[in-house]
Design goal:
Layout: E1 8-13, E2 18-25, E3 29-37, H1 43-47, E4 55-59, E5 63-64, E6 83-86, E7 88-89, H2 102-108, E8 112-115, H3 119-129, E9 132-137, H4 146-154, H5 164-167, E10 173-175, E11 184-189, H6 196-203, E12 206-211, H7 217-222, E13 227-230, H8 241-253, E14 257-260, H9 262-270, E15 274-291, E16 297-309, E17 316-318, E18 321-329, E19 335-340, E20 345-348, H10 363-382
Helix pairs in contact: 8-9
The protein binds glutamine.
Residues 51, 232-235, 237, 261-262, 303-306 line the site of glutamine.
């Protein structure tokens, strides 16, 4: 049960701006990169998205916790955020699936949060100054916040952080295909995968073999997969050389590739492009993206702080042939998708698996399935076998 008396908590940004509110979730002190999410719903999926590892998430929607917590909506085995910030927590959750309160759930998981602060002012500050480190403390006592600021400035930065291996599975596991027989085998590199992703592939008849982040290209190919999937994940993509090397081996073998978010950044790097840090990133379930080829607009689920440096107009020549920017973010023109024209590979910076978010981009999983089917047919024809 939550107590009725509140404990004072302080949120301190690395540039010295601070906000005083009430403790929310566990009492204690926590540090991470302060980022804001504009999703109105889906807080359970958000807090359990491994891509948020090392980040303190500020919800811009003022009311959070209204539907409580349930056992179905978690996207991984634990709560992954380093801290959680809400304006006005629900006093009494109400939903037919609810089995408890969000603040109690955070407290039980040891996740430190803060409520009752002006999240709009905080978001505007981050939008102008950029994402930065922050700390939340509900154990400061009468100590001046100077000590907290000192500890924030000593905490790790997001640039240069190699976090995917920390959240990846340690042992391979299999998500079976829906239906009687698997139509395709997908080797999925778990860089911080969400449950909804293997589930989406399995629903299309794929047996998904989920593998640890540091699986090599040779190990991936040894599974004889129809396709290789690269998941989302936390941290700075510039550090993930192991995944880039593995992917280059896969690309050379001509096996179909699909990457999401961190996986998209890894594909860009494998093709020879760089990644860079956005000022404050894109997080939420309401991010518009344009498909360059069709002009269609999708409202997408996003959660990224880095992006890929790929030319927006025309095809770029790479070691693996021509590559085009297939999707563009409509808020700020950031490249949100890649398509290889000469090898079977494509990727998106956004989240077609949603969870939370709209399902506009779900057909991208079908595109991957079709790419695997086409490649299999072409290979059978080339070897003179039956298709
Ligand atoms: N959701 C993700 O995969 C995020 C990728 C990467 N950590 C970024 O912030 O850009």
């Amino acid at each position: 049960m939550s107590t009725l008396t509140s404990t004072r908590a302080v949120l301190m940004l690395e540039d010295g701006r601070s906000f005083t509110g009430e403790a929310y979730g566990a009492l204690g002190e926590t540090f991470g990169e302060a980022v804001f999410s504009t999703g109105m719903t889906g807080y359970q999926e958000t807090i359990s998205d491994p891509s948020f590892h090392g980040q303190i998430v500020i919800m811009t929607a003022p009311h959070i916790g209204n539907t409580g917590v349930n056992d179905e909506d978690y996207e991984s085995e634990r709560i992954q955020v380093a801290g959680f910030v809400v304006r006005d927590p629900a006093r009494r959750p109400s939903n037919w699936r609810s089995r408890g309160r969000l603040d109690d759930e955070l407290a039980a998981a040891g996740i430190v949060g803060i409520s009752g602060i002006d999240t709009r002012a905080l978001t505007r500050h981050l939008r102008e100054r950029g994402a930065m480190r922050c700390g939340i403390s509900s154990v400061l006592g009468e100590e001046e916040p100077a000590g907290l600021l000192e500890r924030v400035r000593r905490s790790p930065e997001m640039v240069g952080a190699d976090l995917a291996p920390l959240v990846s599975t340690t042992e391979p596991y299999v998500v079976p295909a829906a239906g009687d027989a698997a139509l395709f085998t997908v080797a999925a590199l778990d860089l911080g995968i969400k449950r909804a992703t293997p589930a989406a592939l399995a629903a299309l008849g794929c047996e998904v073999r989920v593998l640890p982040a540091r699986t090599t290209g040779e190990e991936l190919l040894a599974l004889n997969p129809d396709g290789v999937f690269l998941s989302n994940g936390p941290g700075d993509p510039a550090t993930a050389d192991y995944a880039v090397d593995a992917l280059r081996t896969v690309l050379r073998a001509g096996v179909p590739v699909f990457g999401i978010c961190f996986g998209h950044q890894v594909l860009a790097r494998a093709l020879g492009f760089d990644t860079y840090k956005l000022t404050y990133g894109h997080r939420g379930v309401n991010q518009p993206v344009g498909d360059v080829a069709t002009g269609r607009i999708a409202v997408t689920s996003q959660n990224h702080g880095f992006a890929v440096r790929v030319p927006r107009d025309g095809a770029a020549d790479t070691e693996f042939g021509r590559v085009v920017a297939s999707h563009i973010g409509l808020n700020d023109d950031v490249v949100e998708g890649l398509e290889c024209l000469d090898v079977p590979a494509f990727s998106v910076q956004f989240h077609p698996e949603a969870a939370p978010g709209p399902h506009d981009a779900a057909p991208l999983f079908e595109r991957f399935r079709d790419l695997m089917a086409d490649t299999r047919r072409a290979r059978a024809a080339a070897s003179g076998g039956e298709s």
